[in-house]
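Collaboration report, partner site 2.

Our partner group contributed sequences for two proteins of shared interest, and the home lab folded both. The records are reproduced in the order in which they were received, starting with the first partner submission.
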Amino acid sequence: MDYCTLVAAAGNSSLGYYKYQNVRFAAPPTGTLRFAEPAWPTPETGINNGTYAPARVGCSAQEDCLFMDVYAPANSSGKNLPVMVYTFPGGYSYNEKSYSTPEGLFNLTSDFIFVAYNHRLGIMGLASGPTFQHQGGTSNTAVWDAQHAFRWTRKYISAFGGDPNQITAVGFSSGAAQTLSQMTRFGGNAEQLFDRAYVMSPGVAAAGGHYQSEQIWQNLSTSVGCAGGSLDCMRGVSFATLFAAAGAFQANSGYRLQPRLDGNIVADSMAAQLYQGNFNFTGPVVVTHERSEANGTLQAGINTDADVVRYLRIYYPAMTDDVVNGMLVRFPASAYSSPALRFADMRNTFAYTAHDIALTNALNNNTWNALTTLDAAVHGSDQAYYCKTSSSVCLSSSSVTSAKSPIPYKHSIS
């Protein structure tokens, strides 16, 4: 049975490609599907011309947000082109599928399909904890959403001329962490959903801390009138109220919303699972990191050596005392001009390069590794060179939206 019919929102044969905007790859995660794993979308009776949501719809702006964009060459029908699936950065808190678009890459070659998808953010994508899970909540729904997007691509990309056996996962920062999470999900006991990967500065590691997860769930639920953490009640709170309350709690408490170990889709931290061999990915893979990843935006509130220890606890709640003490020795205060820079260097190791090393080790050094020293070489310095929409080396996204097809190019997805 057909589930949707798409009309290109932008592009034409002269431009050389079409953009299919706001393709619904999962059912709206609202009502009983809030805090639940994504479901397949139901059949659509209308024609989706990209206006089901704003072009830059994101999951921090509205709850019905599980859309993707697909860019396909104008002559792709019937072909078996390689596919790039892009996961945006933003620390699981902000940004959306349009963070990077492929116009600049299409200047080089249009012989590929580009897919970018949304996943749930903030508390909607990262809720966890014993009470939450015992009442039937699905923890780490952001990771489930990513899995679903790759499964959708495997299932449907051939309708656009893409080869489901030639999928490259590309991600930066938390988007790269999502890529590693897909390699290690369910302790490596799940199907491999992509065939290659390009991993840039993977950050925001999954953490322990069931106690912290429980506390934020209980405090947050109480603040919005759902004392005791009732899941049914929390599913009835307005999206705007709940998202704002979670953001305020995070800002006031220093709690870091990030994937949490749940004994299910996130069985352990990415690095631990890679070292233990609990992953399902054979490569090839490109792995990159910046020279001074965490020095670009120093963590506010770190003014003393005691603050360094406090923020290590906030970022890495499962870190034991011996590891903390070892970090203080490995990164001596005398080597830094400020405690904030000292903590930043620690984060360079734990938040970024440690993941690159773990992946390289897991694949027996059969990886392509790169150190970026462009500009200040802080986190994200390299992204302008990978065709971020604001980059001078890429066309503006406006060149796509203004190029309407006089005869819309249509796809039926079945």
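Second partner submission, folded after the first:
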Amino acid sequence: MTTRDTKPRKIVGNPLPKVRGHVSVGAHARSILFWLAIIALLIYSVFPIYWLVLSSLRPPDTIVSEISLWPSKVTLNNYRDLNRHINYGQQYWNSLVVSVVVTVATMLISTFVSYAIARRKFRGRKVLSATLLFSYMFPPLLSLIPLYVAMVHLRLADTILGLAIAELAITMPLGIWMLWGFFNSMPFELEEAAMVDGCSRLGAFVKIILPLAKPGLVTVGIFSFLISWNGYTAPSILVTSDETKTVPVGLVSVAGNMASQWGMLMAACTLVILPLIAGFLFLNRYFIQGLVGGIKG
């Protein structure tokens, strides 16, 4: 009588091969859908800007009739006619001066005020920071009307300085609130270690805190430039003469007085968006880091 061998037999090979086909096909399909979504998003966001620049380079008689991804004839006459019919160069310079002054002033003042709120313990500190953000939620028109009365009494109405002060009143609360959250996310031990090594409070702030706060500062600068560059409410109220008009006010006059001149209108819009595109191309990395830091703070 023979006994049956009850030991499990070792099976050579893989009797149940892994089914990898469905997994790879699913992953491949998800990758294709992802890139299709990215391409669709790029077309949705970039194509209008491309068509705007393209239309500004077409001859005026072919803007509506010719539909192609590249013009048959490229011309700069729209830009020349724009500066010939209206004082667009002066308006562009006024916008640039106001935006740069507002951006620099907002970054400087917001840095010191938000640092003091984040590091100094005083009564009403949180109420102050909440009030700054709460004041930014109101429409700018509510603050510009009494501000216009003050500018008239100070003889700053219809001046570049008065317009910069008005725009600064709009950008300052947002800049302080964003940098306050950014400084709150930084541990105070960094400054303490620097002061132990012999730095003063100001030295620790300049050598340690400011380099770490660069993304937040760049973000505040970008927002300040955007708000002041695209601002229409303050210039439309405070500015009355052609010599102190800014680009948004001038662009509205172009659209109203030259409704059929699509070439000049496209050229004017192209000149408006060029500084914004250049700023985002060079500073987008700091901008994203600053937004993340401000949200975490």
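Feedback sent to the partner group on the second submission included the following. Residues 27-56 form one domain. Residues 19-23 have pLDDT under 50 and may be disordered.
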